Amino acid sequence: MGAYILRRLALVIPTLFGVMVINFVLTQFVPGGPIEQIQARFEGEGDAIQSLGGTAGGGVQEEGGYVGSRGLPPEFLARLELQFGFARIVCDEGFAGVPSITAPECRKEPIPATERFLIMMGNYLTLDFGQSYFRSISVVDLVLEKMPVSITLGLWSTLIGYLISIPLGIRKAMKDGSSFDTWTSGIIIAAYAIPSFLFAIVLMVVFAGGSYFQWFPLRGLTSENFDQLSPLGKVADYLWHIVLPVTAQLISAFATLTLLTKNSFLDEIKKQYVMTARAKGLSENRVLYGHVFRNAMMLVIAGFPSVFLGVFFGSALLIETIFSLDGLGQLSFKAAVERDYPVMFGTLFAFGLISLVVGLLSDLMYVFVDPRIDFARREG
């Protein structure tokens, strides 16, 4: 097993490198880089450039107002290229001063895309993910700032989904073909067919003061007076805020997991060893939970890491938007729209690495649930 784990870990590096290469190449063909985004934003509203923290210096404003309507000064665009790492300053041999684009002996030279990619990957190996182009904060700090929202949605949705789906799936398997199985299947299929964002809107309209009841808050994870609440009050306030977004994200996931649990149990119940156990006079509960449960739950339990990851990084964008939750979904979307490359590639690298490690953990979970499985022998 140790050799199998080492081989899987060795595959992480080329796989992650390939993912980064593909996405980096694709961004080179997408029109409108970060500098073009700044130009468009600046020409639309003059003070948007202040988000760069004063990068523009004093050359953006002239007597009588901003010059955005006539285009940004070339000197300012050159400084942006240097700041974002798209170009560098090259000076003539023998130049002893401070390299500057204003020096006659120096000039701006574009950095090839291949070199920029290798520099980026070299920084990632030291866990240096850079700083956001449009926010004065590092990518790591930005992700950590948004992480609580995504953890809330992902963790609670996954745990509650398992707590509902596993007992319901077992019950449906034991009552296969009954009226209980029929009407619960109808509810599950209807739940699966409803898009999570549409269900979120319905929940908001009905329960968040839209047209009927105002039982739950409309936005955010906490109230404005959260800091003044007692410890128990903070827990209650937090749980009160997450009811609607977690319910909206849970609806389709629980449907899939319930049917998966039911089918797994049905497959095991029909096997020969179950008939043998019953023939020995064992009770139904002993047969179900002493023999069937372990084998039937292998697929469900072992898939927990990947299910959690899917909920954690999956359909969170629309849920976060509807309930005004500033999480990783919103962060990734804004980074893609703004062409904030450090945030885009930094989060892609981190999430890709997590996904590959979670894939390995899923295999190890299979072995933990059923030690008879030997991936190393199967590979051989």
What tags apply to this protein structure?
globular; mainly alpha; 380 residues; two-stranded antiparallel ribbon; two-stranded antiparallel sheet; 15 helices
What does it look like?
With 380 residues, this protein is mainly α. Helix content is 67%, strand content 4%. It contains 15 helices and 4 strands. It has helices at 2-29, 34-44, 74-84, 113-125, 139-174, 179-193, 196-207, 231-269, 272-279, 284-302, 304-313, 316-322, 328-338, 341-369, 375-379; strands at residues 61-62, 65-66, 87-91, 106-110. A two-stranded antiparallel ribbon has the order 1-2. Strands 3-4 form a two-stranded antiparallel ribbon. It starts with a helix and ends with a helix.
Give a quick precis of the structure.
This protein is 67% helix and 4% strand. It is mostly helical.
What's the arrangement of secondary structure elements?
Layout: H1 2-29, H2 34-44, E1 61-62, E2 65-66, H3 74-84, E3 87-91, E4 106-110, H4 113-125, H5 139-174, H6 179-193, H7 196-207, H8 231-269, H9 272-279, H10 284-302, H11 304-313, H12 316-322, H13 328-338, H14 341-369, H15 375-379
Antiparallel strand pairs: 1-2, 3-4
Helix pairs in contact: 1-14, 5-8, 5-11, 5-14, 6-8, 7-8, 8-10, 9-10, 10-14, 11-14, 12-13, 13-14
